[in-house]
Design brief:
Strand order of the largest sheet of chain A: 1-2
Number of helices of chain A: 12
Mean pLDDT of chain A: 86
Largest sheet of chain B: 6 strands, mixed
Number of strands of chain A: 2
Helix content of chain A: over 70%
Order of helices and strands of chain B: EEEHEEHEHHHHEHEHEEHHH
Largest interface: A-B, 22 and 31 residues
Shape of chain A: globular
Order of helices and strands of chain A: HHHHEEHHHHHHHH
CATH topology of one domain in chain B: Rossmann fold
Oligomer: heterodimer
Strand content of chain A: under 5%
Number of domains of chain A: 1
Radius of gyration of chain A: 18 Å
Number of helices of chain B: 11
Radius of gyration of chain B: 18 Å
CATH architecture of one domain in chain B: 3-Layer(aba) Sandwich
CATH class of one domain in chain B: Alpha Beta
Low-confidence stretches of chain A: 281-288
Distance between the termini of chain A: 33 Å
């Protein structure tokens, strides 16, 4: 029972982490390798506002998300826009930005295990005999709401439809009067906010360290590759597969092996089904 | 026909690496006409269309729309000004149903502006447009997924997406290619109707016989240069045009 409940929680953590990456890729075809850095930067920003400057939680969270959205948009506007369509350059440039942010944070003194965000609510409840703390319940709530809201947005609103159409063929979208650069900018801002939101709800469970940023990036990429790049439904399914696989690994083999799960899963899926779980044909239908 | 110049290309030149795709081409498009653009493969027709619609920036020269310079504007801005095009290789949104393919243009800034945001039910508008151009509503064709539609419908869907933009100019890039005579016969009245409604049309086409029945004027490109311009019957008699087409196709046209 414990494995089931904590497996679900772990899966939703994966989904939260991958959501921003999947959204950016689904709309703009940009692999944002700075995703992990945005995540960790949002954590440190919130920490600074909350505990460094003593602001209250809502203000700190909103300020952090606004800043992180601005950074995401600026990265697109001033850098990625120039290399759109050159995949290798997109990866190198976004990874470089990510490294710069993360190592910059380290340089600025955010080292060691002294940084942590407070939980939103203290206390635990018992679900079927298993103790679960409120923070994890909040993660489930936020995760499920975001998954549903984003799915509804991309599949059942006209704006979402236009964004999905753009992902299918940018040239055609341009000819039909859509400013695809603006849409990509919005996508990156939104994706960064999602990374920040994930950080703010997940990070109270542990410490904020720069290294976490790398793990987050690897896990986000693992989820998206396994689910099929650009596939929303695939990403959610992949989150659950990875979430439970990692949980079982920790239980059976040992906690130090948990980061191997994502990497191993990437290798296995690339051998068995390179286009991801939801195959190419399906992928076209399910793109964000 | 009132000889009002709607679109003007002035001395446009574009090279890709060492290849001169378009060399010093000038042309005028008059309001309300159908202009044909012909030439052998690789003569620069599509590049010229890309220059006009902003997908490619010219090395030199300029494009004027209603006497305003549009050279170097981004494609979506030019589209929203009222110049739209079909693509040579059809690019529908495969996973969407036919009428949903029109949602994107129906939400473009241009349509929003021209209707003052009061377009009403866009799904209904989309289906009306499709029915106009021969998607049988009774057979539920507008509701079919684009990837399941046969070529003739896909070509018309490309055109429908342009029409949904309420454009002043439609540029058709080989919209007849790959179609049967019967399918072309259903397309021709659609284009004539568009012209009647005041839309200016530019057509790139290899199917000369069908094209010449439709167009008011024709321009011939060869190796990126403008070889000839005028009414079809005269242009086709010119020796250099016949040479460019190696004679054979030209004989076909004359029957």
């Amino acid at each position: 029972m414990g494995i089931l409940i904590y497996g679900i929680i772990n899966s939703i953590v994966f989904a939260l982490i991958a959501m921003g990456f999947a959204l950016v890729y689904g709309i703009s075809r940009l692999p944002n390798f700075a995703h992990g850095a945005f995540y960790i930067l949002a954590g440190f920003l919130t920490y600074t506002f909350l505990l460094g400057l003593g602001l209250n939680s809502p203000t700190s969270i909103i300020l952090s998300l606004i800043i992180i959205a601005g950074i995401g948009a600026a990265v697109y506007r001033f850098l990625l826009i120039r290399i759109r369509g050159m995949e290798a350059s997109e990866i190198i440039a976004s990874l470089a930005i990510g490294l710069a942010i993360m190592e910059g944070l380290r340089f600025a003194g955010f080292r060691g295990k002294t940084y942590t965000l407070p939980v939103f609510l203290e206390g635990t409840v018992r679900i079927a005999g298993v103790p679960v703390d409120f923070q994890r319940l909040i993660i489930i709530g936020v995760g499920v709401v975001l998954i549903v809201v984003l799915w509804l947005f991309t599949h059942h609103t006209k704006v979402g439809l236009a964004l999905r159409a753009m992902a299918q063929d940018e040239g055609a979208a341009l000819m039909l009067g859509i400013d695809t650069d603006f849409a990509a900018l919005i996508a990156l801002a939104l994706g960064s906010v999602l990374a920040g939101l994930a950080a703010i709800v997940i990070l109270p469970l542990g410490n904020i360290t720069v290294e976490t940023g790398y793990d987050i990036l690897i896990n986000a990429i693992a989820v998206c590759i396994i689910g099929g790049l650009g596939s929303w439904v695939g990403a959610v399914i992949a989150s659950f597969i990875l979430g439970f696989a990692q949980m079982l690994t920790v239980y059976i083999v040992g906690a130090q092996w948990q980061m191997v799960v994502g990497l191993l899963a990437i290798i296995l899926i690339l051998i068995a089904r390179p286009s991801g779980l939801l195959a190419r044909q399906k992928e076209l239908e399910e793109r964000v | 026909m009132a000889e009002e110049v709607l679109l003007q290309v002035k001395n446009a030149t574009k090279s890709f690496g060492g290849v001169k795709a378009v060399v010093d081409v000038s042309l005028s498009l008059f309001k309300g006409e159908i202009l044909g653009m012909i030439g052998p493969n690789g003569s620069g027709k599509t590049t010229l269309v890309n220059l006009i619609t902003g997908f490619v920036k010219p090395d030199s020269g300029e494009v004027l729309f209603k006497d305003k310079r549009i050279t170097g504007l981004q494609p979506h801005k030019i589209a929203n000004l009222g110049i739209t095009r079909t693509f040579q290789i059809m690019r529908p949104y495969h996973s969407l149903s036919a009428f949903k393919n029109l949602i994107v243009p129906l939400y473009s800034p241009r349509v929003r502006r021209s209707t003052g945001g009061r377009l009403g039910d866009r799904d209904a508008v989309a289906i009306d447009i499709l029915e106009e151009i021969g998607f049988e509503r009774d057979a539920y064709v507008p509701y079919k997924i684009a990837s399941s539609l046969p070529l003739g419908y896909l070509k018309r869907l490309e055109l429908a997406r342009c029409i949904a933009m309420r454009p002043e100019i439609i540029i058709c890039d080989e919209i007849f290619s790959g179609l049967s005579m019967a399918e072309i016969a259903t397309m021709v009245p659609l284009l004539e109707k568009l012209q009647m409604q005041g839309t200016t049309i530019m057509m790139i086409e290899h199917r000369l016989r069908e094209l010449f029945r439709l167009v008011n004027r024709v321009i011939v490109l060869n190796f990126g240069e403008k070889l000839a311009e005028g009414i079809p019957e005269e242009v086709i008699e010119k020796p250099d045009v016949r040479e460019a087409y190696l004679g054979t196709e030209v004989d076909n046209v004359r029957d």
